[in-house]
Design goal:
- The structure holds three protein chains of three kinds.
- By secondary structure, chain A is of the alpha+beta class.
- Chain A contains eight helices and 20 strands.
- The model of chain A has no long low-confidence stretch (mean pLDDT 90).
- In chain B, 74% of the residues lie in helices and 0% in strands.
- In chain B, helix 4 runs parallel beside helix 7.
- Chain B is flat, with a radius of gyration of 27 Å.
- In chain C, 43% of the residues are buried.
- The mean pLDDT of chain C is 85.
- The chains are: A alpha+beta, B mainly alpha, C mainly alpha.
- At the B-C interface, helix 1, helix 4, helix 5, helix 6 and helix 7 of B face helix 1, helix 3, helix 4, helix 5 and helix 6 of C.
Chain lengths: 365, 300, 290
């Protein structure tokens, strides 16, 4: 299948400052690509480059197989939804939605039909004669989406479209976007700094930092096999526990030694990963640390740790303790008897563990 | 204990209340006094213009006219001497109109386009250009009088109204650009991006999206430019000749003409006539001016 | 081709204005600066001879008077207008019911031409028929108020008229400043029991420093450019008693036919403005870029 979007060796700099370095991404029709990273990582700039709103300094960009590197935004067959919605303040909702068609000289009848179709789909029919200033945040969001949908583009671009909504509405709209993607089978590129949005929406995630792609993969790949410490720390909430440890080969297993507050170092034996460097950082997600007896499996090992803090969160209870000089969070069941200041036996699921090289931060295995 | 304390507290509260009321009266008295100070010259101008010369000589400056006469107004409008000619202010009033309207329109249009480019289509060097234009607002115009006189001569515009229009447009650009730039800079750039994706170009975006948003700042700019150009004296006196002079120059000539009897009532009527357009603009649209200057951001 | 056009349209729109400013502001300043270094009299000459025009300027008693007047007028005009403007703003800030009307009354002189202002005050200050005769009419037979025709005091009449015209504008600036102070800070101070006077002097006024600066710049700029007011009020007289650099320059350029003097005096005015405005603009633009 020809990729719908193909970015090859894209570079972007403002004067001497490099914003994007050698970006290579490609998606097939129907993909939902999410660009995620902390603010200033270049994800919005990359989206603007895809849209043609920012010229690129090097590399090539193909949309639908056509080289669009030097093509102006209006000829790229894209539609875009912005963070501030960017609705034209003096035009009614209907005019906002049809403005693009009007500019392109689409005939009145088609405009009308399209407007009716899209406003029905987004349930904004009662709002068509209002001005953007008279709408709520969620309604504005829908109108902005309508403006994009009506164009039937090859590629939809979203620039943090949910970040101005309150928490509840954000979850609702997230579901709606997902449904829309499913119904239309459209190709989308979506920028967000919210890793939960990235996980829930994407069919493919690009994690960026400092203008460099850190990892590309499906949500499961990114979550379960982060390529480096940055991705491991950035994706997931609460973040993955990253614990400094010493590894020592021992028969057909590896002994993992972790400093503990009381009772000497904690020692685990990993039988999966035979070739670890001596100094290693062990990454384990909070849900892969359970109370002993609540998790079974071939690679589960138990050990005692002192409990520092207990945070009940309703469905789960988070328990924090000190390991390897770091705060380590475990996600326990709601009815746990863990008490601050008391030791508790934890179950570590080494089948889910990631190892990183401390110097380079890269994944070891 | 409380039985004794209560009445005394009540009394002191009562005392501070009367104090407050007195203070309030003092405040209003002061404010009215200042209002009188600002109104007094206008009052004197109006009453003097409605008196006969005889009454002016015998009566008091601040008294109301015993017999109201509009003769001075008629003379000021169509008979007062500005030197050799005695046609009153009328031709010069028309000169000022013919000068101010195109000059205001053109400088506002250019200011809007410049501000739109500088605020929304940033390119390398745009900020430097803006700084250079901004500084142009602050130069004393004396420094450009001599070369401008020569350039107008070379262009064949010396002593003409188009020449004056040209001068006012050029030296108004700094302010009009500043006004529009500061207004447009508060409009999110995503609007331009969205319109670009929608397929609109530079002028389409300006015309369909930015211009409809600009009413408040257009009001500010038009009032500002109209006041500046109507009230200008320096350019008018430097670059006009008999017949093309603006109203301020003609007024000054009437007041300072040394021939014949000094007609104070005509002077005052002429001064009011010369001031009327800007005064009217200020009274009608002044509040939009203040509001527009302070309102920066646009909702939506 | 159309791609290229599309990308460069904004620059092309800005270009004519930029070229005009470059030529008619900066080019003209350069031209005037050049002429100020020549022996030009009635017609411009372009051979640079040095600072002879500036030496003539410094030696001229009329220029000396003009500069003195500028400092007297400038200082008094700025100080009085600021004090009056601030006082009015504070008085108006006390939840006055007729604020809109009063504001209009205080502000309307700003809409007038300085020629109109000068004409009005010339009449009011007229020694024979103006205020002097009014006060005498009240029974003070020996009252004299002849500043307008007294060479030692005439410059103060310019201050009176100037302050009348500009103080309302300063009031509007300060009033906007007072209103922009964070209300929570004021409420906190009121809860702490700090008297109103202290709230103004210790909290509100210090936080308005940028507005003081803007008001100062606007007034200083008006003072240096003020030309119309002197022409209409005193005509620069009696004698040269109320000459300002602006009227000096004009006289040299258009009635005395001394272009060299006109150019050098204009350049000195320019330098005075530079000294005041450049640091201000610099700090403004830098603050905005941060």
């Amino acid at each position: 299948m020809t990729p719908i979007l193909d970015i090859k060796n894209l570079c972007k700099s403002y004067g001497p400052v490099e914003i994007l370095k050698d970006i290579n991404v490609s998606i097939v029709p129907g993909d939902f690509l999410v660009l995620v990273g902390p603010s200033g990582c270049g994800k919005s700039t990359l989206l603007n480059c895809i849209a043609g709103l920012e010229p690129i300094s090097g590399g090539d960009l193909f949309i639908g197989g056509r080289n669009m590197t030097n093509v102006s935004p209006k000829d790229r067959d894209i539609a875009m939804v912005f963070q501030s919605y960017a609705l034209y303040p003096t035009m009614s909702v209907a005019k906002n939605i049809t403005f693009g068609m009007k500019v392109r000289g689409v005939d009145q009848a088609t405009q009308k039909a399209k407007l009716a179709e899209v406003s029905k789909q987004l349930q904004i029919e009662p709002l068509l004669n209002r001005r953007p200033g008279q709408l709520s945040g969620g309604q504005r969001q829908r109108v902005a989406m309508g403006r994009a949908l009506v164009r039937d583009p090859k590629l939809f671009l979203f620039d943090e479209p949910l970040s101005n909504l309150d928490a509840k509405l954000r979850v609702e709209m997230r579901t709606e976007i997902k449904r829309l993607h499913h119904d239309l089978g459209a190709s989308m590129v979506y920028v967000t700094h919210d890793q939960i949005e990235a996980m829930t929406l994407a069919s493919k995630i690009v994690v960026m930092k400092g203008g460099v792609i850190q990892q590309i993969g499906t949500p499961a790949e990114i979550y379960n096999r982060p390529q480096n410490l940055f991705v491991a720390d950035f994706m997931g909430s609460p973040a993955m526990n990253l614990i400094p440890a010493k590894a020592q080969k021992n028969g057909n297993g590896t002994k993992i030694k972790i400093d503990r507050e009381a009772g000497g170092p904690l020692v685990l034996t990993d039988t999966n990963n035979p070739d670890l460097p001596e100094d290693v950082i062990l990454g384990l997600r909070p849900e892969d640390i359970a109370e002993a007896g609540y998790r079974t499996g071939e690679h589960v090992q138990t050990a005692n740790c002192l409990v520092d803090i207990v945070e009940p969160a309703g469905a789960d209870t988070f328990v924090v303790s000190q390991l390897g000089g770091k705060e380590v969070t475990a996600r326990l069941h709601a009815e746990t008897k863990a008490t601050p200041g008391q030791p508790l036996e934890f179950a570590f699921d080494l089948g889910k563990v990631s190892y990183f090289e401390p110097e380079s931060g890269q994944r070891v295995s | 204990m409380t039985d004794y304390a209560a009445p005394s507290a009540y009394a002191s509260r009562q005392r501070s209340r009367t104090g407050q009321i007195a203070l309030r009266w003092l405040l209003y008295a002061l404010l009215c006094l200042f209002a009188l100070y600002y109104l007094m010259p206008l009052f004197v101008m109006v009453t003097t213009s409605l008196k006969s010369l005889e009454e002016i000589r015998t009566g008091s400056l601040v008294s109301l006219p015993r017999k109201v006469t509009f003769d001075a107004w008629a003379t000021a409008w169509s008979g007062a001497c500005t030197g050799i000619q005695c046609e009153g202010l009328r031709p010069y009033f028309l000169n000022s109109m013919m000068l101010a309207i195109p000059a205001v329109a053109l400088s506002t249009l250019f200011g809007a386009l410049n501000g739109y480019v500088i605020a929304q289509w940033r390119f390398k060097g745009a900020n430097l250009i803006f700084s250079l234009m901004l500084f142009g607002c602050f130069i004393p115009f004396q420094v450009v009088l001599l070369p401008m006189a020569r350039v107008l001569g070379m262009m064949g515009l010396a002593g003409t109204i188009p020449g004056l229009i040209f001068v006012h447009v050029i030296y108004g650009l700094g302010f009009t650009t500043l006004f529009f730039r500061n207004y447009y800079v508060s409009i999110p750039n995503e609007l331009v991006k969205a319109a670009k994706v929608d397929g609109a170009g530079f002028f389409r975006i300006f015309w369909s999206i930015f211009l409809p948003l600009s009413l408040p700042i257009i009001v500010v700019t038009v009032i500002w430019q109209f006041t500046q150009i109507w009230n200008d004296f320096l350019f008018g006196v430097s670059f006009s000749q008999a017949g093309t002079q603006p109203v301020t120059v003609a007024l000054n000539n009437i007041v300072n003409s040394t021939t014949g009897v000094k007609e104070y009532n005509v002077d005052m009527a002429a001064a009011i006539i010369a001031a009327l357009p800007t005064l009217l603009v200020y009274i009608v649209a002044g509040k939009y001016f203040i509001r527009g200057l302070t309102a920066g951001s646009v909702k939506g | 081709m159309s791609e290229w056009l599309e990308r460069h349209v904004p620059k092309m729109v800005l270009a004519p204005s930029f070229a005009a400013i470059l030529l008619f502001v900066y080019g003209f300043i350069a031209w005037t600066g050049w002429i100020s270094l020549t022996k030009s009299r009635l017609l411009p000459k372009y051979d640079i001879v040095g600072t002879i025009q500036y030496e003539r300027l410094m030696a001229s008693p009329r220029w000396d008077t003009a500069m003195n007047n500028l400092f007297i007028f400038g200082a008094l005009f700025i100080i009085i207008a600021m004090v009056l403007g601030l006082a009015l703003a504070i008085l108006l800030d006390q939840k006055i019911r007729t604020e809109g009307l009063l504001r209009t009354i205080y502000l309307y002189p700003m809409a007038l031409s300085m020629i109109v202002t000068g004409t009005a005050w010339k009449w009011i200050l007229n020694p024979g028929l103006g205020i002097e005769s009014v006060v005498r009419g009240w029974g003070f037979e020996s009252f004299t108020f002849d500043w307008l025709v007294n060479p030692d005091f005439a410059i103060y009449t310019v201050v009176i008229a100037g302050v009348w015209q500009a103080s309302g504008f300063v009031m509007a600036l300060f009033l906007a400043g007072l209103r922009s102070v964070d209300e929570e800070i004021i409420k906190a101070a009121q809860v702490d029991g700090i008297p109103t006077m202290r709230i103004y002097s210790a909290i509100i006024i210090p936080s308005m420093a940028p507005i003081f600066l803007s008001a100062f710049i606007v007034l200083a700029h008006l003072a240096i450019k003020s030309f119309d007011l002197v022409i209409a009020l005193t005509g620069g007289g009696p004698g040269y008693a109320t000459d300002l650099p602006a009227t000096y320059m004009y006289a040299m350029a258009f009635s005395r036919g001394d272009i060299g003097q006109a150019a050098s005096s204009a350049m000195v005015m320019m330098l005075v403005v530079f000294a005041i405005v450049v640091p201000y603009l610099y700090s403004e633009l830098r603050a905005k870029n941060d």
